[in-house]
Design goal:
By secondary structure, this protein is α+β, with helices and mostly antiparallel strands. The chain contains five helices and six strands; from the N terminus they run H-H-E-E-H-H-E-E-H-E-E. The strands form three sheets. Strands 1-6 form a two-stranded antiparallel sheet. The longest helix is centred in the N-terminal third of the chain and has 7 residues. Bound molecules: iron/sulfur cluster (2 copies). One iron/sulfur cluster (SF4) binds next to helix 3.
Length: about 110
Amino acid sequence: MAIDSRRDFRAKNNMNPVRVEHKLALNKYEVDREAHIRLKEEICRECELRACLYVCPAECYKLREGKVSYNYEGCLECGSCQISCGKGAIEWSYPRGGFGISFEYG
Ligand code: SF4
Ligand code: SF4
């Protein structure tokens, strides 16, 4: 008897994989013009570990042309980036009242 692949098993049992991207799309954001995250680029330039690139569940930090850049619009407000940095390069606060993420749909 052949063993089903995971894909076959899911198809037979009407199971769709849950993807993080789909869950994130259920969140609602009120984006403030004022960023609640700031990076001290002079510190990032000297950083070798670049933990922020790996810990952010929303992938707000990216490496572009050898430089770490970020966006704050998709932030999930978990605070992981600031804790993981360890070099004090991230100034982070919650967005101002009325702005930021609402998890009521996710
Ligand atoms: S934010 Fe912190 S971890 Fe990320 S590149 Fe800058 S110094 Fe490194
Ligand atoms: S607070 Fe969380 S979601 Fe927001 S940028 Fe930092 S790691 Fe990403």
